[in-house]
Amino acid sequence: MAYQGAERRTRWIYVTHNSEYYLKERTCLGVRDRTRGSWVVGHQAVNATLSGSILFGPGTVVPNVGQPREGESLCFKREDCEEILTSPVEAIRRPPRESGMRQQA
Prior knowledge:
Elements: E1 11-15, E2 19-24, E3 27-33, E4 49-57, E5 60-64, E6 73-77, E7 83-88, E8 91-93
Antiparallel strand pairs: 1-2, 1-8, 2-3, 4-5, 4-6, 6-7
């Protein structure tokens, strides 16, 4: 029987077409380039807070302040109030134990 209680996971990888966003709770810890497989140093989303996600449809924009879902674009907010919007999420994964991201923060 699968666990039925509240979600306890705090670390997620949101995969978009070009990037992987590594989050702990709602803070972006790092961004990896999917083509090169390397960390993107100085990416604007690093240390930004995930404020929600947005689903763009034909003639509609549907905001989501809960857990982002596949097909939605992530929306990050930085301390300087700048907002960052990603391309749509293609997959949501857990970071592997050996990634190093699980031990951070």
